[in-house]
Design brief:
Radius of gyration: 19 Å
Number of strands: 17
Bound molecules: adenosine-5'-diphosphate, magnesium ion
Strand order of the largest sheet: 3-9-2-1-12-16-17-15
Largest sheet: 8 strands, mixed
């Protein structure tokens, strides 16, 4: 197989939902990624941060509530914190896994800002749930004091929702590119990137969380990657998901993907964005391929043995 440049986007199951889970999950994730690197490919890693950014946001809110001298930490700062500690864990674990296979490629993390558009419609309709479910009292406090917006689940309680605007520009792209060209494995665009507006020369943090699948597809396009792989919790994408007539897909063309998206086969907030991001990447230039599969099947997927390929 020729050497390919591959952007790999890691989902929630690659990181776990808390620190003990993350410790174990990241070790397994490092193996899956090392398998790809061992095949001789250039790999760029991105990841989600739903549980992690929610955890930091909740912790910082509690902190501000307990100590009146502390102000509430902006969400963009919480995203930056999540990129840092996930990146630290990933680069450390992957480094160890690679060294165990006598591969000396350096691994590093780039804190990544991603510009969003002020007029993005997502700001009018906060839809991305983050963090834990709260009591009415906790939710009222955060809404009165910080202007947070909540959705109510009749059983589980209140959960904060934030806007999820589309990524427009990866600010640290040039740095990422030169690290990649210098044969480094790079972890970047964590949690979809730290959302910022451009205000002249100043980049101002925004209270939002960018979808990691869209940010990763943009990165893959900008780096002129050959392949975009989304590693998630399912081995294949399905039509009529979880229905009697469910059909697992081995491959789809971009035309089919856009048609299935329209027909509503994929849940918004999970599979919709993945298929859409893959189809956009693949249709952006001839020869580009995308793959959606389960984390532990990464290598098999790369070899064409499983997963759903978008070509
Ligand atoms: P990640 O954390 O990897 O981004 P998500 O939970 O956001 O994962 O998205 C993956 C999930 O999408 C799967 O675990 C599955 O439950 C769900 N899903 C929704 N629609 C489909 C579909 N049509 N085919 C396969 N999985 C689907
Ligand atoms: Mg997701």
């Amino acid at each position: 197989m020729d050497k390919m440049r591959i952007v790999v986007a890691l989902g929630g199951n690659a990181l776990g939902k808390n620190l003990p889970e993350q410790y174990l999950a990241v070790k397994e994730t490092a193996k899956a990624i090392a398998d790809l690197i061992e095949c001789g490919h250039e790999v760029i890693i991105t990841h989600g941060n739903g549980p992690q950014v929610g955890m930091i946001d909740s912790a910082m809110s509690l902190f501000a509530r307990e100590d009146s001298l502390q102000s509430k930490t902006p969400l963009s700062m919480c995203v930056a914190m999540s990129q840092a500690y996930i990146g630290y864990d990933m680069q450390n674990s992957l480094r160890r896994e690679l060294r165990g296979r006598s591969i000396t490629t350096p691994v590093s993390t780039v804190l990544t800002q991603v510009r969003v558009d002020k007029s993005d419609k997502a700001f009018l309709n906060p839809s991305k749930p983050i963090g834990k479910y709260m009591s009415k009292e906790e939710a009222d406090f955060a809404s009165d004091n910080y202007g947070h917006i909540f959705v109510k689940d009749s059983l589980k309680g209140y959960r904060r929702v934030v806007p999820s605007p589309k990524p427009q520009e990866i600010i640290e792209l040039a740095v990422i590119r030169s690290l990649v060209e210098d044969e480094n494995v790079v972890v970047c665009c964590g949690g979809g990137g730290i959302p910022v507006y451009a205000n002249g020369e100043h980049l101002r943090g925004v209270s939002a969380v960018i979808d990691k699948d869209y940010a990763s597809a943009l990165l893959a396009k900008e780096l002129d990657a050959d392949m975009f792989i989304i590693l998630t919790a399912v081995e294949k994408v399905a039509l009529n998901y979880k229905k009697e007539n469910e059909q697992l897909l081995d491959k789809m063309s971009t035309e089919e993907a856009f048609e299935y998206l329209k027909q509503g086969h994929f849940s918004v907030g999970s599979m919709y964005e993945k298929v859409d991001a893959c189809a956009q990447f693949v249709s952006s230039k001839k020869g580009r391929v995308a793959l959606i599969t389960e984390l532990h099947k990464a290598k098999d997927g790369l070899l064409g043995l499983t997963g759903t390929r978008i070509e």
